[in-house]
Design goal:
Length: 335
């Protein structure tokens, strides 16, 4: 595959796509996404046909332009695009087109951010169902109408959450989110010889899904915050209702490290950040963003409560109610 120039790489990393979806593009553009054609070059594979359409070898070009499954997804887009019309492009040229604002506007009269969002969600949808069909022999493929409906919903949510106005300022209080997403907030508290971390998961109505706390045997503020992030990232796997995650904290170092792990400012954070990214890789989409302390106060108050009462693990059924945790008023939780 052709290598990308610096400008196109910057377009990827500076895009408002969730980090997990940027990593999907990164794998595609380096040709290291484990498609059957890539695996067949290194091991003996007899059946190389596409798992979803059964026609031709599963390669990046086939996935992007020629797979019947992908053609259905693209035709269901708001613009009814026939994706095979772009089959003359290489995958890298296709991505370069998607990130070129002027070219997309001239050729399709569209906003390139919107078509990039749709292309990304379509590829992620292909990869999700492809893996289900390949590795889960009991999996029953939904009908195409249902898949297209779910795709459009994910696309609408991603466009909404990725819009420039959505992140124009830091949230100053806990705020609702698009339907189907969950929000994970994490916070910390310190005692004389250890620290406590807490994570709270809420649905788009603001209702509690799960809350957890843990004792951390360190007083390092940076490591404690990273361990809180690790706890929050891990608990989403126990929530069956959503694979779309918004991770929030008032700790800039941790959020920046999640969004750009290669620039992690503190070596102490690296292991916990790596574990957090691994847990988040099981989500279909995730976003990490910094908020003010007031918007994250519930998780800090929960950590304080845990430190006072020496409670760790799943605390959903014994914790103080969310209204009291959301208060900025200093809280004392001695039983």
């Amino acid at each position: 595959m052709k290598s990308l120039n610096k400008k196109t790489w910057l377009a990827l990393w500076n895009s408002k796509l969730p980090e997990s979806l940027k990593l999907l593009w990164w794998q595609i553009l380096w040709n290291i996404l484990p498609t059957i054609s890539v695996l067949a070059a290194h091991c003996n594979i007899h059946l190389t046909n596409c798992p979803l359409c059964g026609h031709f070898e599963e390669s990046l070009e086939h996935i992007c332009f020629n797979c019947h499954f992908m053609k259905i997804l693209w035709f269901s887009s708001p613009w009814g695009i026939h994706i095979d019309a772009f089959a003359h492009l290489s995958v890298t040229d296709w991505f370069g087109f998607l990130t070129n604002k002027k070219l997309v506007k001239t050729s399709l009269n569209l906003d390139n951010r919107e078509i990039l969002c749709f292309a990304t969600i379509a590829l992620d949808t292909y990869w999700f169902y492809r893996n289900k069909m390949t590795h889960d022999h009991n999996f029953c493929m939904p009908n195409s109408d249902r898949i297209c409906f779910q795709l459009r919903k994910r696309y609408d949510d991603l466009v909404k959450i990725s819009s420039p106005s959505h992140k124009a300022s830091l949230a100053s209080s806990w705020s609702p989110l698009p339907e189907g997403w969950i929000k994970l907030n994490f916070g910390v508290a310190s005692s004389s010889n250890c620290s406590w971390v807490a994570a709270i998961a809420r649905d788009y109505h603001g209702h509690l899904l799960i809350a957890a706390t843990a004792k951390i045997n360190t007083l390092s503020s940076s490591l404690t915050a990273a361990e809180a992030c690790k706890l929050a990232s891990s608990i989403h796997q126990s929530i069956a209702c959503s694979s779309y995650i918004i991770l929030e904290s008032d700790n800039l170092n941790v959020i920046s490290s999640l969004n750009n792990p290669s620039c992690c400012p503190d070596w102490e954070l690296e292991h916990a950040i790596r574990d957090s990214l691994f847990s988040l890789s099981f989500a279909q989409a995730w976003v990490a963003r910094k908020v003010t302390y007031s918007a994250n106060v519930a998780s800090h108050n929960l950590a304080k409560w845990a430190s006072c009462n020496f409670v760790s693990g799943n605390v959903s059924n014994c914790m103080p109610d969310l209204n009291s945790l959301d208060s900025d008023v200093p809280m004392f939780f001695n039983q």
